[in-house]
Amino acid sequence: MIDREHDLSITQQAEALNISRGSVYYLPRPVSANDLEVMRRLDRLHLQFPFAGSRMLRGLLAAEGCKIGRRHVKTLMRRMGIEALYRRPRTTKPEPGHKIYRYLLRDLEITRPNQVWAMDITYIPMARGFVYLAVVLDWFSRRILAWRLSITMEVSFCVAALEDALAHHGKPAIVNTDQGSQFTGSAFTGVLTKQSIAISMDGKGAWRDNVFVERLWRTIKYEERAGAGCLNSFSASISGASAGVRLPSGEAAA
Fold first, then answer.
1. Are 215 and 222 in contact (CB under 8 A)?
2. I want to staple 192 with a disulfide (CB 3.0 to 4.6 A). Which of 105, 124, 176, 197 is the partner?
3. What's the CA gap between 244 and 79, in Å, rounded?
4. For the chain, percent of residues with pLDDT exceeding 70
5. Buried b (16+ CB within 10 A) or exposed e, 127-162
6. How far apart are CA 84 and CA 241, in angstroms?
């Protein structure tokens, strides 16, 4: 938007665009090595205690010998898209008569991309109401493979996201979902069985599987505006969204 070779000065261009002149010259500062280390710890602790807010996480870090202020923890949480999980509109609604598949991830060591994909539905708050977001992630790399938005909970946008991921990234050995009616219906499971992909569904004690989808919308929440533009930006940068942070598996995002 700013043309440094234009006849108008940068100050005049900034005024015409109604933006701060300082933002034109600002260069983002890299994340310090110390903050990266704290972010690694926060990533691990959030997986273990997804209900923990900045105060509790500060206490957990202090117990590990890391002295840090709550406001600094809150700033890093915002940068990472981490927020304590709490009750929200229910998106997992079983359908009587639908087949429930066995949970296959317990004690399974995930060591490579396309070994396990996870899919879930969450919601994004808007100015008036909210929209539903279906996301397909690679469980090893934590990379977003496909996503779709919808104003209803119909299965079609879940199937569309799954087919998009399969078309662009090959097929995984296992796809893991919850037991919501969108994922247990034949329209969704039929796509997987047709390609001989094993189906896994969350059962009791598998609550951690949804943490990364929750992080997605919480990251979008802190963008200037919600919508497809933010999702495109997040999806394009997710492979490096940790800014060098290694995930709990010990592998950086692909």
1. no
2. 197
3. 13
4. 67
5. eeebebbbbbbbbbbbbbbbbbebeebebebbbebb
6. 19
Greatest Cα pair distance in the chain: 70
What's the pLDDT at 230? 46
How many Cβ atoms from other residues are within 10 Å of residue 184's Cβ?
Answer: 21
CA gap 50, 88 in Å, rounded? 14
Between CA 5 and CA 85 the distance in angstroms is 49
CA distances from 240 to 5, 126, 247 (A): 32, 26, 11
Confidence of residue 26 (pLDDT cuts 50, 70, 90): low
Residue 179: what pLDDT?
84
Helix (H, G, I), strand (E, B) or coil at 7: coil
Conformational region of residue 129, where left means phi above 0, alpha means psi within -120 to 50, and beta covers everything else: left
Please give the Cα distance from 91 to 153 (Å, whole number): 8
Looking at residue 243, what is its pLDDT? 31
DSSP 3-state of 28: coil
Question: Per-residue pLDDT tens for 130-171?
Answer: 688 889 989 888 888 999 988 888 889 999 999 999 999 999
pTM of the model: 0.54
- Dist CA 15 CA 71 (whole Å): 34
